[in-house]
Specification:
By secondary structure, the chain is an alpha/beta fold. The chain has helices spanning 7-18, 35-47, 65-70, 75-85, 96-99, 119-122, 126-141, 153-165, 195-200, 202-214, 220-232, and strands at 2-4, 24-29, 50-55, 90-92, 145-149, 171-175, 238-246, 264-272, 275-283. Helices cover 38% and strands 19% of the residues. Residues 286-292 have low confidence and may be disordered.
């Protein structure tokens, strides 16, 4: 695996590879890698001749300086993990000036309201920062395919909208959430949890699963109330939000009965101390016949 430490190194590497007419898969990360990240590269390896990873902790997508400061940085461990996976051909580790040559500033985007729901409400400007860095990476790397995890489902939806708006010739792939044994969605932030918090955090996925089982059997308002009741009784975790949304628009719905022609998804954000954890789950309507 080649390590590319600046934009010039990336450009030289890509120039050589393009002479071989290889298809290119790419997945950007902020490091602190885990098996969920590796699942992106596993799929990329199946679908492409060449696979590139990147590690860059993007300052413009953090709402609080303390959160940026505390974000886990484990570069040596990350490099070992990528090498041992045998899925990645090159790792791009840009400096801030490689991504933000004119200074740390986000572009402003509009994504038909997708950016204003859920995470957008609670983290103003977050998706401008995400979109700015993703656009820059996609322009610099120029992949045929790019891979993002479904744990950040809203981010995935926005990135799909982004590439259509700016007409980038790349296909965006969503990769299913990988979970720890207790159901906790794998996340770099999990490294900041205590062992006790990590074990107890199974309540997040358990709550989503219960919501899925009750979906279509009771009203949305009743599901919301049950979720709220769980976290009112839970001392170690604080519920920031729970939302049932239509997948296409990400707009929250308060149905009495779900529309069988609409795909729904439940989203949740929870604090374990000062560590913020998010998760989501696809819902189905019992009125719509499941595929065999």
């Amino acid at each position: 695996m080649q390590i590319l430490e600046d934009r010039n190194a990336l450009s030289s590497y890509l120039l050589e590879q393009k002479k071989l007419h290889k298809t290119l898969g790419f997945a950007p990360t902020m490091g602190a890698l885990h098996e969920g990240h590796i699942s992106l590269y596993k799929l990329a390896r199946k679908q492409n001749d060449l696979v590139i990873s990147s590690i860059f902790v993007n300052p413009t997508q953090f709402n609080h300086p303390e959160d940026l400061k505390k974000y886990p940085r484990t570069l040596d461990k990350d490099i070992k993990m990528l090498k041992s996976s045998n899925f990645v051909d090159a790792l791009y580790i840009p400096k801030i000036h490689d991504i933000y040559p004119e200074g740390l500033k986000s572009k402003k985007y509009h994504f038909d309201g997708l950016e204003n729901e859920m995470e957008g409400k609670h983290r103003p400007g977050h998706f401008n920062g995400v979109s700015t860095v993703v656009e820059e990476f996609l322009r610099q790397v120029g992949p045929d395919n790019a891979y993002f995890g479904e744990k950040d489902f809203q981010q995935l939806a926005i990135i799909k909208k982004l590439v259509k708006q700016i007409l980038l010739p790349v296909k965006i792939w969503g990769v299913p959430i990988l979970r720890e044994k207790n159901g906790l969605a794998m996340s770099s932030r999990n490294q900041r949890l205590t062992n006790r918090q990590r074990h107890s955090a199974k309540i997040i996925y358990e709550t989503l699963e219960k919501a899925k089982k009750e979906f279509g059997k009771i009203t949305a308002d009743e599901i919301y109330e049950k979720v709220s009741a769980v976290f009112r009784q839970e001392k170690n975790f604080a519920l920031e939000y729970f939302s049932i949304v239509e997948e296409n628009t990400l707009k929250e719905t308060r149905f009495a009965e779900p529309d069988p022609n609409i795909a729904y998804r439940a989203f949740i954000a929870v604090y374990a101390g000062d560590v913020r954890l998010i998760d989501n789950i696809a819902l189905h309507s019992p009125l719509k016949k499941e595929p065999c």
